[in-house]
Structures are given as structure tokens and as C-alpha cells.
Amino acid sequence: MPALPSTNPNPTILITGANGYIGTWAVKTTLERGYSVRAVVRTESKSASLRELFGNYIEKGKLEFKYVEDLTKDGAYDEVVKDVDAILHIASPLPTQSSDPQDTIPPAVEGTLGMLQSALKTGNNVKRVVITSSTAAVVTNDLEEARTFTEADWNERVIKQVEEGGSNVHFFLFYRASKILAEKAAWNFYNTNKSSIGWDMTAINPPYVYGPSLEPHIASPSSIGGTQQLWWNQVVDIPSEGLTKEALGIKGGNTWVDVRDLAEAHVRALEREGAGGERIIVSGGPYIWQEWIDTVNALASPAIQPVLPKGYPELASGEIPYHIRVDTSKGERLLGLKYRTKEDMVRDIWADVERRGWSEGLAKKGSVAGL
Predict the structure, then answer these.
(1) How many other CB atoms sit within 10 Å of the CB of residue 72?
(2) Tally of domains within the chain
């Protein structure tokens, strides 16, 4: 079914998690495409950065805000889905260091089902719902052999690990389990209610998300958070215990996507008829951390290069036998996606670093020189 009705000259897109790293880029991409956006955040104070970034769209009546403090509350989205044409459901609990899986898994599942239930009850104009899942729901880590994963794969192993280990397993496994269980619950709801809903659904499965931030006020790199913080700490400001060949090489590798390409994928999933009812992996490709270190060293300003970590350049010389790959052919076919390269992303991240004045702090610190 067509995602956005041609009869409506000004479709409104509901975006949850709108003030987050991915959500902010999704708001920007959606607005620049000409759509109106109804941005959902938890509280009014959480909308401050969006108001600063997109004030001109607010003045034009193209951006409005709704507040849903408890995403798991029954009927939480009933009012906000009214009169919207499509939904980007990006909101999801982030990984925490809680030892209780109940702090992560039920909120993810209940928040996703709550959105779909509201779309069924009161979303009379909705034509497509796009949910943000993850390759955590696809890729089984810690396999002995190298493998390429597709949309047909499910990370069933992590569910078993959490069920058997409970609070004794690493907290990040709770996050992985939450993504697979939330996505499975969504597809079950969609298939069970297909005869009574007027919309279809797409799941977007990104891996690790890196790239520049739109957040206007970040005091220092230590304040970034999330996957941006992970990238910075693994590439630019590496703690001494992270500089091992194992961590920077094949066993520490994974797959990635630029946050801007992910935002574009979400919007195209609204627009492309063929994306309905599909699960789509979105990824710029595989990596090992040494590649990022080499790329930063090649593209950073000469004044900064002496204090950047060097790692073990031999790890990224020649053809790299990546342990984990994902097949992105479906997204390229259905959404027409073309991805930024590692060089593209690092160049733009470093421009952002310079703009925020962080490079000066690095030069003064100098604690990673020669590593």
C-alpha cells in the first residue's frame, strides 16, 4: 500500500524519540523533505534543542510537539497518533548498567506494542508505521566462523543467554534481547491484526550508529553519550586498556551506519511502496576499530595528529577478513540507498570537532600521543 497518500498535499509524520541522536536527524530529514512533523518527547524541556535547531519550521507551522512521559503507559499514544499520516517509531530504552533485565526488556516491548495499539485504535489516517529495530535482533555475535547475516536471521541465541543467565549476564545483552523481543512482538501484532488495520509496517535494522551530532550544546566529548561516546573512546581518546590488538582487530569489529544515512532510510521507508511489510538492514559495511583510527589520523589537522592514538596499523593493511558482515542488498533495492564511506563520516565528524573547539582540548591533553 502507498505509504503517504497522494491525496494529502501536506502529510504529517509522527516521530517518537525525536530529541535523541537518531531522532533529531530524522526530524531534520523529514522536514527538509517537505513534510510536517509531530515530534514526541517525554517532557517540554526535552524539546529545547529541537526548538533551537528548527525554530523556522515551528514558525511556519511545520513542526509541533507532543509530550508522552511514560511510553509504556496504556494508551500513551492514543491522542498523539490522531490525524497523522505515518509514524516513525524511534523511541526505545537505551542500554543501562542495570543488572535486572526487567529494567530494559519490558519497556522496549511495551513501548512498541503501545504505539501499534494506538495506531490501530485512533490512527485513522495512518498509512505506514516504521519502527527502528537493530541488527542486534539479527546478528549472532561470538560465532567462531565468519558469517554474512540477512533479514532472514534472528538473534535467538541472546534470548537464551538472558533467560539462562538472568542478572549474571552483561547488561548489554539485555539491550540486544530487548530489540529482538520488541521487533518480534511488533511483527506478531501486525500479522495478527492485518485484516483490521489500514496501515502496513516496516522495520529498519541498523547496526552501530556513528556520525556527527546535531545537538547544539555539548560541552565536551565526555558529554556525548551513546554510540557516539563509544566511537570517540575507541578511536580518539582510547583508555590504555582498550589498546590491545584483539580489541582493535577482527574480534572487536562489527558493522556500522552513518546516522544521516539511517535517517534517510527511515524517510524513504515511508515513501517507497515496496518497503511495506519488510524488514530492512541498513548498514554502511563492516569495520574494525583500527580502520577508524587510521582514517582519523589521515584526515585530522596536522596539529592534532601527534596526539592521536596510532594503534596497530598492520591490522588494517591489505584485505581485512571481517568476521561479521550484513547483506544490505534489500535496502539498496527497495530504498535506493547509497551509503557514506568511513572517510566521509570521519571528515564530517572532524569538522564538527573543530567547530565545537574540542580539537584544542585534545592538543593540550596530549595523553594519547605515540600509542
Answers:
(1) 16
(2) 2
Per the domain annotation, does 6 fall within a domain? no
Burial class (CB in 10 A: 0-12, 13-18, 19+), 323: buried
In this structure, are 128 and 248 located in the same domain?
no
Indicate yes or no: pTM above 0.85.
yes
Short-list 79, 49, 52, CA closest to 66: 79
User: How far is C-alpha 353 from the chain's CA centre?
Assistant: 21
Check whether 199 has a pLDDT greater than 70: yes
Whether 330 is in a domain gets the answer yes
Bridge partner list, 205: 281
Beta carbons of 104 and 95 less than 8 angstroms apart: yes
Residues 271 and 326 in one domain: no
Task: Quote the domain boundaries for residue 247.
Answer: 210-256+284-371
Whether residue 188 is found in the same domain as residue 96: yes
DSSP conformational letter for 286 = E
Give me the CATH number covering residue 81.
3.40.50.720
Tell me: the pLDDT tens digits for 294-322?
999 999 888 888 889 999 999 999 899 99
Tell me the C-alpha to C-alpha distance, in Å, between residue 255 and each of 77, 102, 203, 308.
33, 28, 18, 23
